[in-house]
Design goal:
Largest sheet: 7 strands, mixed
Radius of gyration: 13 Å
Order of helices and strands: EEEEEEEEEEE
Number of helices: 0
Strand content: over 45%
Distance between the termini: 37 Å
Structural class: mainly beta
Amino acid sequence: VQLQASGGGLVQAGGSLRLSCTASGRTFSTYAMSWFRQAPGKEREFVAAIRPGTLNPYYADFVKGRFSISRDNAKNTMYLQMNSLKPEDTAVYYCTSRVRWSVQYYSPAQYADWGQGTQVTVSS
């Protein structure tokens, strides 16, 4: 599956952005979808995931209450609504997918398909 992330940009602390990830393919609804991010000099880290079927969301502790993940299977698109942004949220945000849900959904090694990333910069 090919993934295309968009929606990044420059925003002041406390502001909001909505990222989108559009996927190719006719079986999007069955894919586990996730967002990761990577700041300069740091490892790629898990942000949020959403299960197929149940649509249950999972979040990293540092985004709980601020970010919301969702998906629209009819549009083959996943979203990440980011509110109350902080300077430490600055990173390249990547979307990724997996054919089946993994209990290790938080590990980048579980995913094979990645989008090109979209830059999010939060100024203080």
